[in-house]
Write a structure and sequence with these properties.
It is built from 9 helices and no strands.
Amino acid sequence: MTAFVTVACGVFGLAVGSFLNVVIYRVPRKESVVHPRSRCPGCGTQLAERDNIPVVSWVLLHGKCRTCGEPISARYPLVELLTAALFVTAALRFGLDWVLPAYLIFFASLVAITFIDLEHYIIPNRVLYPTVFIAIPLLVLAAATQDQWHNLERALLGAVLAWSFFLVLHLISPRGMGFGDVRLSFLLGLFLGWLDLRHVFLGVFVGFLLGSIVGLVLMALRRRGRRDHIPFGPFLAAGAVIAVLFGTSILGWYSPA
């Protein structure tokens, strides 16, 4: 049964990744993610069903539009494969736990936020707010079906603590910590807090660590200056994913025997 769930999550992740590509492209442009159907960014031709199969269509078309030959970014299969990989690892991490659907939503949201922030330097409310509104009922359902109300209480506490910490940082240095990151911290604290409040600290710490390392490397390579903005959302997302998937093992290394 666990193997079936894992494979199903992987296939589902490919489909969700295809939808996330639409979200990543349209949300920053304030377009609907539902209508019209997917089309070529170059010529505007609506894609046929055969040209909209995750990963497979991109490979068969050699990364080009069938109609105009315009190159199709490798980001499209990358998002689909990344989403599928995260869904598989979530299935392996949580198995048949009722909380699995909530973490699938969480990981999907982080993928969309990461690619939007990297390209447009924004963390859109059109992704964050629906994620929170869907995730909280799923967490409540998981708590109710498995009598894990303490997990839900801890999740809400983690969300408040993370949001408060990032709000203070934003008030101290608005340029260094955008309010989009403050909003994102609530979502991170919610899901990391469900696991353990220590996971909240770990996820935030890893996010800051990754951001610092990449920032220093970019400055050393002269790709960024001290005053250049570097999107922080992707690092927070990466820190959260690492904390969810490996946090128990990492924290175990530092726990007394």
